[in-house]
From TrEMBL:
Superkingdom, taxonomy of origin: Bacteria
UniProt entry keywords in alphabetical sequence: Signal
SUPFAM superfamilies in the cross-refs: Cupredoxins
InterPro entries to which the protein is assigned, alphabetical: Cupredoxin, MauL
Coiled-coil boundaries: none
Protein name: Methylamine utilization protein
Length: 220
């Protein structure tokens, strides 16, 4: 049985927190600039010497939405895009990390898409403009998403401490960054909790209505 995309994302994030015997940990808290509200779902990563093996995952379409909205996968992973709606979809990405186009289809595409470069991939549907999702393709094992309290704990490769480094760079990404095509970089001190603030765009308005073109494909 194919594991779900959510389970695979969770498994990848779990690798960011191995046993303390092999690494130290960095606790990160992310809040929103101006309000100090916790930021949920921010993706935090640190360059490491450890890599993660590719996985097979999926992002399915149901109720004219992508599920999950955000998927974190290692470089070289393959992602399937099954359509569970009775409406056809046309999935694409123009992102430099992966450009692809799955033309109008129902059911399951002929083959999964392989994501062979690290970066941020934004997904869209050429039939339903409101449909949007993101894939974070990573080449590091130290990566995770902030919880409802805006917190995440990452494993620090002990080689950093051995090298006498006192500070480390974090890459921080969120879909509502003003420029969400790239992460922002924050430098923090090792050995103490990190507090990061982000300036985010407002939540986008949602519109569940179907236009005429969407209606034509609803029963296909």
């Amino acid at each position: 049985m194919r594991p779900s995309a959510i389970a695979l994302t969770a498994a990848l994030i779990m690798t960011a927190v191995p046993l303390a015997a092999t690494s130290s940990e960095l606790s990160v808290t992310v809040t929103q600039s101006g309000s100090a509200e916790p930021v949920t779902g921010a993706v935090i990563s640190i360059a490491t010497f450890r890599k993660v093996a590719p996985v097979s995952a999926e992002i399915y379409q149901q109720n004219r939405a992508f599920h999950p909205h955000l998927l974190v996968i290692p470089v070289g992973s393959s992602v399937d895009f099954p359509n569970r709606d009775n409406t056809q979809h046309h999935v694409y990405s123009f992102s430099p990390a992966k450009t692809f186009n799955i033309e109008l289809y129902a059911g399951r595409p002929e083959a999964p898409i392989v994501f062979d470069k690290p970066g941020i991939v934004e997904l869209g549907c050429n039939i339903h403009d409101h449909m949007r999702a993101f894939i974070i393709v990573t080449d590091t094992a130290a990566i995770g998403q902030t919880n409802e309290s805006g917190q995440v704990t990452l494993a620090i490769d002990p080689k950093y401490a051995e090298g006498g480094e006192a500070r480390i760079e974090l890459q921080v990404w969120h879909p509502r960054l003003p420029d969400n095509t790239r992460p922002v970089v924050r430098e923090v001190d090792l050995g103490q909790p990190a507090n990061i603030t982000l300036s985010l765009e407002p939540e986008p308005a949602t519109d569940g209505s179907l236009d005429r073109l969407q209606q034509r494909f609803r029963e296909l």
